[in-house]
Design a protein that fits this description.
Helix content is 37%, strand content 22%. By secondary structure, it is of the alpha/beta class. Pfam families: PBP_like_2.
Length: 267
């Protein structure tokens, strides 16, 4: 009898250790858009420091559409998007929760020698009418345009808000980047390159963020921005995901968002 009780106690202890280890190593992926990935990773790091209940990962971009498909099919618990849901997506039971407004920044390789442009000059660059940075007072260097695919959220916002972009035909002499990270890295590595994407403070490291019509992306009157949102099914019951969603509304998350040059979106 004593031996049986000892074995039962040991078995219970082993199970408790295994369960505790499993709880400590539980991973929560937030999949989707590349827009605002630095912001969301910083929020995740702050959450893990404060809560410590799960290892929150923000993996490389699969696009807003990829995030919506993953959440809608149950392959992911949480997703991230940089566009509103369609009526059909919302009707499928997916919930949209905006957390941050990210200015749409234009970035150039520092060798270009230009730090400010007008909105008209941007139109001329992206249409191909301006081909050398020396025409803007910069280096004698070919302008290499990096763009995004037509359905990209930042490009969509630029077409809706930036002067001259609504019907702009972007030059065929441009490189299409399929993710925000690819666009940023291309501009970082290619002499003469210019690209665009959601603003965050890390962009200022090794790149030049352009002023447009005298306004920096963090200025209140900067004309263009993208909204970063989390998505999940309305039937969500996962405790770690629910804890992260609550944290995203908290002041600590708002402080992280502000520190990276974006604006919190209050619930």
């Amino acid at each position: 009898m004593a031996f049986s009780r000892i074995m039962a106690a040991l078995l219970g202890l082993c199970l408790a250790v295994v369960n505790a280890a499993g709880a400590e190593t539980r991973k929560l992926d937030i999949v989707g858009t590349g827009d605002g990935i630095d912001v969301l990773r910083a929020i995740a790091a702050s959450f893990m420091q404060q809560e410590g209940s799960a290892q929150v990962e923000v993996p490389p971009s699969i696009g807003s559409g990829g995030g919506i498909a993953a959440v809608g099919s149950g392959k992911a618990i949480l997703g991230r998007v940089a566009r509103r849901l369609t009526d059909a997506e919302a009707a499928s039971g997916i919930v949209y929760k905006a957390i941050a407004r990210l200015p749409s920044a234009f970035i150039v390789h520092p060798g270009c020698g230009v730090s400010a442009v007008t909105s008209a000059q941007l139109v001329a660059i992206y249409s191909g009418r301006l081909a050398n940075w020396k025409e803007l007072g910069g280096a004698d260097m070919r302008i290499r345009v990096v763009r995004r695919e037509d359905q990209d959220s930042t490009l969509t916002v630029l077409r809706a808000s930036m002067p001259g972009w609504h019907d702009l035909e972007i030059t065929e002499k441009s490189k299409i980047a399929t993710t925000t990270q690819e666009a940023i890295e291309t501009v970082r590595e290619v002499q003469g390159a210019i690209g665009f994407g959601p603003f965050s403070r890390p962009l200022e490291q090794g790149l030049t963020v352009l002023r447009v019509d005298g306004h920096y992306p963090t200025d209140s009157d900067y004309p263009s921005s993208v909204v970063l949102a989390l998505i999940y099914l309305k039937t969500l019951q996962d405790p770690d995901a629910l804890a992260f969603l609550r944290f995203a509304d908290a002041q600590k998350a708002a402080d992280v968002i502000t520190s990276l040059g974006s604006l919190p979106v209050k619930p």
